[in-house]
Specification:
7 helices, Rossmann fold, nine-stranded mixed beta sheet, alpha/beta, 9 strands
Length: about 230
Amino acid sequence: MGCREYDKYPYVPSSEYISRLAVESHDSEIFATLNDYLANTKGPALEVGGPTRSGFKVLENVDFPNKLIISNISPEDDDIANIDVMNLPFEDGSLGCIIASRLPLSLDDTDCTNEIRATMDVIGLLADEITNLRFDKLSDRDFINISPRIALIVEARSKLERNGLLVTKHLLDSELTLVKALGFDLLYHIGSASNLHEDDWRRGEYVFQYKGNDRMLGNISVKNCFCAVI
């Protein structure tokens, strides 16, 4: 792919960042066991929208046995792969781990670059028109196409191998609902689950494992989750 591959995440979280986190986990030996989970994966790890220079506490001192690729839709140097989260160029079930930190919420997100706007314009909408969408007229696929965060969750369900890991920061309640409905089990959460920020953000770092027991059909809609997000 012509980019650098890493054995460990190259950025270390600052002491100030770590001091704001409290550990809540299903396992008291969180970091040791995360290495065990990764050791049992076969495919490479991929970060989308990277690099995250603030680092991840959950990935500190964690080894990637099958290498880590850091990617961005607008890579800043040759070490970063040029990859679009909306269309990951990997075979289904081929990734051992997917990492993401700060993806924009939707097409009208103020942090969204022009390049991201262009790639999300897949249903013939201009960026300024997103706020005038008739949600009742759009399908689940439309919502996946206009939200990189929703696309990430859906793409992770397809691209991760069984028991592969999804590592991310800061989720909304609706996004947590969607992740769990698509067959992911929460392994670890670093940060307080009760620590609400603006717009119901659940702060902290999350590690999910894809178990493949998809519970989405019949009881949840991507559309409904996306409406709750924006």
